[in-house]
Amino acid sequence: MCKQISTWGIESYKDEVAAATFEAIASGKVDFVVEMMKFNPRRLTTVKDGIGRNILLAAIAFRQEEIAKFIYESNASKSLIGQYDNYLNSLLHVAGQMAPSVQLHGMSSPALQMQKEVQWYKEVENISVYSKETINVYGLTPHKVFTSEHKQSLFAADKWMKFTAGCYTVVGTLIITIMFAAAFTIPGGNNQETGLPLFINRKAFKIYMIFDAVSLCSASTSVVTFLGILTSSYNIEDFDKYAPTKLIVGLSSLFISVAAMMTAFCLALLLMLQRRWWILIPCMLLAGMPVTLFVLLQFPLLVEIFNLTYCRSPIFLRKRSVT
């Protein structure tokens, strides 16, 4: 098909191939674009959509990372990267526009959607050949386009961050209350003469106290972190790393706190029931259920935030000079 198309006249090529190409870009059909670029890259760089966007501008607008990377790393990018659409929007203006909703559906929260948008804008900023102060026909710079297009997203992301932090703060506060009390109402009680715990010389008791302290300190750390989120006001740039890092610290501390709390509970049972395994084992299995549920329900969010914040590789490896 590509061989046959390469023999078409320029007008037929622009009409038929352009429509198919831009539809392929919008829907993320990487193989189609790659094959078309291999057979006739020069002609493909001349086609434009209804508002004057070339194939690179379209790939940026539709957030098609693989297609944009392939076009950028090809020789054809030299003639594409400096072009505008009909409204004088450069690559950076297009990157500042709101992403199609279908590209954001896979993200689990508004905060992650906002983070993804900020990261995409910064990626395109690294390859833009024009100044950040370049304006379009509406007199807007790329940053102003990004800010105006993402007002609602910023509000939703900020609201989600604070609602989530508020929920986790309640959980952390309950754990602090429980573990603080558990440090003084110890298993077995105290010696009436010396005031020391009766099980002070047992290894399980020492481990119990360590896990109690770990749970208490971790819960305190998470509460302080989430309170910081609740009392902060975020701008767009904060959703790149600053705000997600706070959430990572708070969630990680809360996970450690819950796990340490249930471990301390199991050790307390071990001290009190004196190896009566017929009741110890069922109780320990039941104690593991909250931790398992918490991990299954909340751990994927932590992994997603961490990967998006610290494990993301650059899309465009080469950087061009600004004119």
Automatic annotation (TrEMBL):
Record domain PGG: where: 159-270
Transmembrane region(s): 165-187, 207-235, 247-271, 277-310
Pfam families: PGG
Keyword flag Nucleotide-binding: no
InterPro entries assigned to the protein according to its UniProt record, in alphabetical order: PGG_dom
Keywords annotated in UniProt: Membrane, Transmembrane, Transmembrane helix
GO cellular component, one term: membrane
Domain of life where this protein originates: Eukaryota
Name used for this protein in its record: PGG domain-containing protein
Organism whose genome encodes this protein: Rubroshorea leprosula
